[in-house]
Amino acid sequence: MSTNTRNDDLRSALVVGVIVAALTGIGTAISVPVGIATGLGAATTAIIMVALEVYRRLRSHAVEAMAAQLNASKQTEALGALYALLSPRAPLLPLGGWAASADLLTVLVDQVKRREPTLVVEASSGTSTVAIGYALQQRGHGRVVSLESSPEWAEETRRQVRAHGLEDVASVIDAPLRAYEIDGETWRWYDLEQVELDHPIDLLVIDGPPGTIQPLARFPAVPLLWDHLSSSVTIVADDGARPDEAEMVTRWTQVHPELSSTYLELEKGAFVLHRAPGDVSVDGRTPA
After folding, report:
1. Residues 6+ away with beta carbon under 8 Å from 196
2. How far apart are CA 260 and CA 240, in angstroms?
3. Three-class SS of residue 209?
4. 3-class SS at 98?
């Protein structure tokens, strides 16, 4: 409960108390029996409490509607900026929901333009693969490799890559989820058997696997790929507003204190982590 809501409840209780006391006092002053005066106060209290509850609910719905309208406006603005930045050769697939939101894609494009990665690895695939591919193609350097556990969606992303003419910079790898053991715990994550990494990963984008497969479903990304990360890697983790993602980032930074973390207030929240070169993590390994 917010501070404003608690203050409103206290004010409401005070107002009700004053009204009940006033009615009881008036009833006593005009010689109305105490029982009737008390009943009148109780009935009035009930009516006021119902009215206050209706008001609170209406106000809550109004706030939620305003927030949704503001977010829709922000996403529309981000989508317009995305089209201006990329000048796509074909329409982009619908964004939001299970797919990445427009505001996250603008962050990814900005990271590519500023960090100039040679290799981008993406956990999951979709319109984000296309957006990153365009940004790399415009630079004339680098490639993105996307890991996808769904064969159907992997093929759909490949169709999008072809439709946008990005085959030279973007590839989608069929990577079904398999079991890994990390520090004595069993995790399911993308099969890396078919993944050829001929360069350290400069930008790691984490938007999968789905959080429904197990708690902290995306945690294995950093432990499994740590030895492949460049000394100045940037990691972008989507869905940062979820508790699992916040705990996941906390675990990463505890093991690897050279990772600095920033939270972005996007539609679904996101964490951006940067690795400081030359440091040594708590497990004693020196960055690549």
Report:
1. none
2. 15
3. coil
4. coil
Cβ neighbourhood burial of 109 (10 Å; 0-12, 13-18, 19+):
buried
Q: Work out the angle at residue 232's Cα, subtended by the Cα atoms of residues 230 and 237, and round it to the nearest 5 degrees.
A: 85
Cα distance from N-terminal residue to C-terminal residue, the chain = 46
User: Which residue positions in the chain have pLDDT lower than 70?
Assistant: 1-46, 49-73, 75, 95-98, 277-288
Distance CA 40, CA 274 (A): 66
Written as one string, the DSSP assignment of 24-55 is: HHHHHHTT--HHHHHHHHHHHHHHHHHHHHHH
DSSP summary character for residue 94: P
Q: How many CA within 13 A on the CB side of residue 194?
A: 15
**Strand ranges, E, within the chain:** 119-123, 143-148, 170-174, 177-182, 185-190, 201-206, 229-238, 259-264, 270-275
